[in-house]
Amino acid sequence: MPLSSQQVRKLRGFAHSLKVIVTVGNNGLTENVINEIDNALEQHELLKIRVNAGDRDERDAMIQIILDKTGAELIQRIGHVAALYRCNPEMPKVDPGKE
Questions:
Q1: Which of 1, 17, 53, 72: disulfide with 84, CB 3.0–4.6 Å?
Q2: Which fold has domain 5-85?
Q3: What is the arrangement of strands in the sheet containing 20-24, beginning at the earlier edge strand?
């Protein structure tokens, strides 16, 4: 379910103070990295990742692959850092609010 602009704004505020949890390094986007991001989304719902890629197009492609494979939504991307959100229906921790 896509998030409304108000929900994205609220999640962006929550993400502001978060530290980067997962870094995609020089080895690129491996299955282990995607599994770590998936596990972190399960536990935290809202997280920041750092994508160390050469140029903007490569970063955007990596982030899109992560979104496709994890089912997360992109909240914000600034430079190398992206904030992702995926609701955990069993144990929700972050409340993005109503639409």
A1: 72
A2: Translation Initiation Factor IF3 (3.30.110)
A3: 20-24, 46-51, 81-85, 73-78
